[in-house]
Specification:
Helix content is 26%, strand content 32%. The protein is of the alpha+beta class and 125 residues long. The protein binds zinc ion (ZN). Zinc ion binds next to strand 2.
């Protein structure tokens, strides 16, 4: 076995509202962002040569993100501090639960703005 690792990723966008209660900055009051979410998975290529079908990965991410799209993130996450960190961790959890056998989640990255993001790196088993 070689030392190469194959990772496959996709990106999707949601619009959602949030506020951060314990915070004095711009995100303290209720407002919205267009969040961009990237997910990267890892696995071995199947007989087709695919780690995962892009269509399938996009469907899985869309399914997970539908829980947050056009919602108030504080309600969905059950917190007064709906940070991008909290969102990224929750997306990673939901995505991990849905991945088929043989696929491992490696990374979830959530852009709250074009220039700022949070990422969750899954540690290898
Ligand atoms: Zn904000």
């Amino acid at each position: 076995m070689g030392a190469q690792t194959l990772r496959v990723g996709t990106r999707a966008c949601i619009s959602a509202a949030h506020y951060i209660k314990n915070y004095a900055g711009k995100c303290a009051g209720l407002h919205g962002h267009n969040y961009v979410v990237e997910a990267i998975v890892e696995g071995r290529p199947d007989e087709r040569g695919m780690v995962v079908d892009f269509v399938e990965l996009k469907r899985l991410l869309a399914e997970v993100l539908s829980a947050y799209d056009h919602k108030v993130l504080n309600d969905v996450l059950g917190t007064q501090n709906a940070t991008a960190e909290a969102l990224a961790l929750d997306i990673a959890r939901r995505l991990r639960e849905r991945l088929p056998e043989g696929l491992r989640l490696r990374l979830v990255r959530v852009y709250e703005t074009q220039d700022t993001w949070v990422e969750v790196q899954e540690s290898p088993e």
